[in-house]
Amino acid sequence: MFKNIMVPVDLAHLELLEPALSVVADLAKRYDAHIIYVGVTANTPTSVARTPQEYEQKLEAFAHERHKVHGQPVSIRVYSSTDPVANVDKQLVDAVEETGADLVVMATHLPRHLDIIMPSHGSKVATHTDVSVFLIRVAQ
Asked: Any idea where the UspA domain is (predicted)?
């Protein structure tokens, strides 16, 4: 049913992604799917990496470690931006098409009042693409 599963990854908050990563591993095994880990980073130094190239190396290492866990084929896609906070939604929507994803699995926060003004990334991806989006709630 699913052949290409896209997983947005924030390397600064890996501990929050574990429930979603477990679901991705199960789905990928069940459907013999390819997993694409997608990261969005700044063009300037961040707490994770000094350059987009260093961020890409770290995401590649992360993907390699995840491959050891679930055994499914993996790849990465990194997007760099002058303002990742403002551009992440558009870049994730673009990544769905560019990667050929037919499912997006994302960790998401519990609903908040602020969502009325600033919707979650998962909401944006779900309403601006034609693929299935599976949001995994992260208890906070």
From this structure: 1-137
